Amino acid sequence: MQEIIVVGSETMVGHNWLKGSKIHDPEGSHEVSVVGLPLNAPASRLQEIIRESNSRKPGTSIVRRVVHCGGAGENGWAIGTCTPFISTRHVSDWARTCHEQHLPMTLISSDAIFTGPWMFHPENSESVCPSPAATHLRELEAAVLDASAGHLVVRTHPFGWHHEKGWLEQSLRALSKQSPIDMETTRHASPIYVRDLISMIQRAWAGGLSGIYHISGAERISCAQFIHRLAQVFHLEAHRMRPLHPLEVRISRFAAGETSLQTRKIRRALGISMPMFMDSLYALREEAEAQNFLNQEMIAA
Fold first, then answer.
1. CB 261 within 8 A of CB 213
2. How far is it, in rounded angstroms, from Cα 54 to Cα 71?
3. Distant-in-sequence, close-in-space partners of 192: CB < 8 Å, separation ≥ 6
4. CA-based end-to-end distance of the chain
5. Tens of pLDDT along 130-174?
6. Backbone phi, psi, residue 79, to 5°
7. Of the segments 20-29, 256-265, 272-281, which one has the largest average pLDDT value?
8. Less Cβ around it within 10 Å: N or C end of the chain?
């Protein structure tokens, strides 16, 4: 059995990757096990795993590739306004170590590196957000691609189940209790269900893609629209929403403006279409029902 190492198992993306702890290899017929490491795990841990593998069977390594959730294992609306704590050097060490071990690495990055006034940003968009957090994320991307042109950087805006303090769970709890919800009305993105994101990244691997790609949902919606539609799918009310901040602040604040992504590059490369938002929300609810989430007090509907 081969392994995919996911660095950032405590993030929302990492958590959901680990939920499918054994997945079908999109590049072959092997069964692949997903192994999680904390976000602050040093790159030397990869070398230890490879040494342990070689000690059992000399000349072979069970590690197939590495996914690093960086500072963007959540969507931009959930990350907040602080600079992601993981350092550029840390991500660079992982990227260089992967290259030295002839392993491809995928960095999960964020749409929040961008801002308005333009919408549906292509990969080479120059409408970047000047905030420290967004600048830091761009530095992480550059560090990964400087280490190897064969690595993959995925900018995205994922949503999915995480834990009781997760952004999605807290939003549903507030809706179920009819608590006031502070809403950034200037925020627009193209959200994607995390399970769809993971599936598309695996298809990108099978297609041998490298460099920067945008993987997001097909629709551009505001944060307020997200909450309203979330309430609709979970049969809740969304009346107590309080708008925050005037339009003028969107240029400089992290993830506070227009971050929707253009996905033409990935769609043409793989011959795929991107998921519609309501379809993703219904899939989210089906996952919750299948795993009995809805009976938990934290998001009881």
1. no
2. 31
3. 156, 157, 158, 159, 215, 216, 217, 274, 275, 280
4. 41
5. 888 889 999 999 999 999 999 999 999 999 998 878 888 888 888
6. -65, -35
7. 272-281
8. N
Query: Does the pLDDT at position 277 exceed 70?
Result: yes
Can you tell me the distance from the alpha carbon of 192 to that of 108, in angstroms, rounded to the nearest whole number?
Answer: 13
- The structure tokens listed for 271 are 């011959």
**How many Å apart are CA 16 and CA 122, to the nearest integer?**
27
Structure tokens given for 201: 């990244």
Q: Work out the burial of residue 37: count CB atoms within 10 Å of its CB; fewer than 13 is exposed, 13-18 middle, 19 or more buried.
A: buried
pLDDT in tens, 212-236: 999 999 999 988 889 889 999 998 8
CB 244 within 8 A of CB 183: yes
Radius of gyration of the chain (CA): 19
The tokens for 253 are 């604040």
Residue range 175-182: average pLDDT?
A: 79
Instruction: Tell how far CA 16 is from the center of its chain.
Output: 10
